């Protein structure tokens, strides 16, 4: 059993590829519910954000099951185009290292940003709820989240960090100059939209409009900043008077199209319009950027703004990398014993069944024992089993990760007939990572 991950992100794939392989929450839930159809994948977590689509899995054979994991990605996204040039994959320690860097925001578009840790937590929670994690991924993601928290506590990597929403507002400021006389329209009412509104207000924008398909959500966000909610169907009409539009919806299709933008520009009497699309999938049809008077930026354009501030955080990133490596070394030492856990569990279970059966038999021959005496018998029998198993368990642990590992696994199976308890060796392998939940 080995760890394997497959994915693409802002470093390996442009936004037009990332949007085609972004994974909506509904698709994640559906895919996890059907994980049993993918032979060789024993556990899985799917992490999908605006800048990455990644799958973490416990597999039987990394070389064989990489193709299965890739098919899982295709099925989740509904696409099967050739994207090998944009994909990366890591196994075992490299997989652990990558996840810990992701959770610590060391692999983010914005070094030190805080949103990714929440996204890792959410991805893990969804998979845990779907029942697709057990001993290995539970251990891995608990430690990844703890590592992310430790990095944020022990370094100042987040203090000089800029967010995607901040970078979007910086683009607007560079384009328009000071924003004190500007007005803005925000498409979307989620966390990214809220952060964008905060930065716009802090830069002095005089008026904010918020639109969303659910008007009540737009009203709530607008109320926080003294803005005005706009019906989604009326948004482009209101845009006649605004200077900048920022889009951050979760729509699977374009919400701003060329024909309606041309209509809008004909009414603006030559006033320029700045559109900043920070959504993935994109909210604005790329053709809109070709319309006279329109300047369109997408999320990839934010890298220039981010890079201006990166030097301030590189020292803290080096400190964070040391923390990540400490945590990777620690968990890899722990993982070396996991290969024996199913065997130990089965041996313990078998001995417990024997112990319980013999105590039950003895009870019919010792009718005069009181409740306290029976507790002593139970305790004594458990201690006998524990002490008998102590030496074999220690021997198994000492062999973990060595050339003798497989020898001891086979020897213990043969000596204690651990493959004849009513389960096949194959089912043992599939069930071993569910043991912790039982």
Characteristic terms for this protein:
single chain, 438 residues, alpha/beta, Beta Polymerase, domain 2, Rossmann fold, 6-stranded parallel beta sheet, 4-stranded antiparallel beta sheet, 17 helices, 10 strands, disordered C terminus
Q: In a few lines, what is going on in this structure?
A:
It catalyses: (S)-4-amino-5-oxopentanoate + tRNA(Glu) + NADP(+) = L-glutamyl-tRNA(Glu) + NADPH + H(+). The protein is an alpha/beta fold.
Describe this structure in words.
Helix content is 53%, strand content 13%. With 438 residues, the chain is of the alpha/beta class. It has three domains: 2-160 and 313-335, Beta Polymerase, domain 2, CATH 3.30.460.30; 164-307, NAD(P)-binding Rossmann-like Domain (Rossmann fold), CATH 3.40.50; 339-431. The strands form two sheets. The protein has a six-stranded parallel β-sheet with strand order 7-6-5-8-9-10, covered by helices on one side. The protein has a four-stranded antiparallel β-sheet with strand order 2-3-1-4, with helices on both faces. Helix 2 crosses helix 3, helix 4 (92-103) crosses helix 13 (311-335) and helix 5 (115-130) runs antiparallel to helix 6 (135-154). The longest helix has 29 residues, at 371-399. The radius of gyration is 28 Å and the shape is elongated.
């Amino acid at each position: 059993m080995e760890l394997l991950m497959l994915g693409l992100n802002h470093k390996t794939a442009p936004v037009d590829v990332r949007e085609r392989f972004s994974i909506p929450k509904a698709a994640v839930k559906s895919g996890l519910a059907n994980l049993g159809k993918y032979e060789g994948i024993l556990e899985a977590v799917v992490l999908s954000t605006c800048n990455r689509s990644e799958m973490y899995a416990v597999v039987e054979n990394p070389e064989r099951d990489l193709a299965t994991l890739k098919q899982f990605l295709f099925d989740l996204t509904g696409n099967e185009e050739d994207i090998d040039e944009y994909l990366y994959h890591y196994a075992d320690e490299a997989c652990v290292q990558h996840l810990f860097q992701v959770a610590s925001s060391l692999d983010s578009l914005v070094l030190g940003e805080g949103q990714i840790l929440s996204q890792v937590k959410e991805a893990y929670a969804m998979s845990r709820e779907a029942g697709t994690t057990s001993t290995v991924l539970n251990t891995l993601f608990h430690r990844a989240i703890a590592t992310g928290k430790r990095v944020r506590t022990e370094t100042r990597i987040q203090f000089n960090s800029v967010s995607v929403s901040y970078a979007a507002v910086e683009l607007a400021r560079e384009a328009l100059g000071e924003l004190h006389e500007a007005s803005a329209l925000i498409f979307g009412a989620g966390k990214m939209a809220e952060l964008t509104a905060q930065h716009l207000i802090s830069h002095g924008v005089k008026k904010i409009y918020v639109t969303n398909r659910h008007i009540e959500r737009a009203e709530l966000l607008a109320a926080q900043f003294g803005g005005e909610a706009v019906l989604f169907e009326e948004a482009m009409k209101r845009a006649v008077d605004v200077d900048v539009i920022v889009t951050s919806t979760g729509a699977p299709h374009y919400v701003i199209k060329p024909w309606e933008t041309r209509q809008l520009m004909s009414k603006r009497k030559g006033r320029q319009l700045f559109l900043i699309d920070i959504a993935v999938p994109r909210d604005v049809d790329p053709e809109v950027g070709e319309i006279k008077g329109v300047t369109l930026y997408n999320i990839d354009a934010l890298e220039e703004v981010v890079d201006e501030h990166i030097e301030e955080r590189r020292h803290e990133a080096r400190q964070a990398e040391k923390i990540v490596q400490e945590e990777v070394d620690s968990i890899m030492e722990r993982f070396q014993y996991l290969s024996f856990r199913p065997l130990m569990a089965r041996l313990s279970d078998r001995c417990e069944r024997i112990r319980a059966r013999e105590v039950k038999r003895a009870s019919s021959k010792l009718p005069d024992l009181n409740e306290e005496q029976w507790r002593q018998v139970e305790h004594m029998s458990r201690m006998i089993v524990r002490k008998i198993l102590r030496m074999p368990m220690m021997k198994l642990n000492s062999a973990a990760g060595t050339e003798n590992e497989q020898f001891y696994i086979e020897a213990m199976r043969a000596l204690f007939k651990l493959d004849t308890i009513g389960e096949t060796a194959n089912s043992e392998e599939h069930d071993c990572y569910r043991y912790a939940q039982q």
